[in-house]
Please model this.
Amino acid sequence: KAGVTQTPRYLIKTRGQQVTLSCSPISGHRSVSWYQQTPGQGLQFLFEYFSETQRNKGNFPGRFSGRQFSNSRSEMNVSTLELGDSALYLCASSLGTETTREQYFGPGTRLTVT
Amino acid sequence: AQTVTQSQPEMSVQEAETVTLSCTYDTSESDYYLFWYKQPPSRQMILVIRQEAYKQQNATENRFSVNFQKAAKSFSLKISDSQLGDAAMYFCAYRSAYGTGTASKLTFGTGTRLQVTL
Model:
């Protein structure tokens, strides 16, 4: 079974621009979570989507948004990029059921904002 | 809110030896899950082992085992017969067992970088 895939793997953007990252979960998984990893703040939860609905959201400004499609693929968008948004963005998928929600991570998208 | 603390930023172990990574957490919940994830230089987060809080028996996965002390809120990872491929960042993580929304969130510690030497 194919793992979680994220595209693109690397991205360089300029301050003020916007960016969209994509995540394709493991086949059959209906839940997708996003995390931001930086040297200063570590791993922080952004949000989770299940069946096209945002189920949980972390403490990030409104510039960070996401969505999930009917095939469970998810995108996250960051508008008006700031230097501090430079990070590794990790996506994780899980079945989404109550008892089997072990999360499997993708390889991440490395975003650099200049 | 839950917090996870890893007090060892770096650890070193010789090949074939045993090393223990520490993790403590703070929560008011009685039911939850604890995890150890490994992040090698490739940055891919890999699940190493999981522990359900309601289970008293410590989880074991091949060379990896945990020492789960619920009352002390401690969750350490023991790696036996260390191999060069074990070199990575190791993250301890907490997940609530309650609800459907908030329960999905993983709260991570700051990580421990493990070096394996010959």
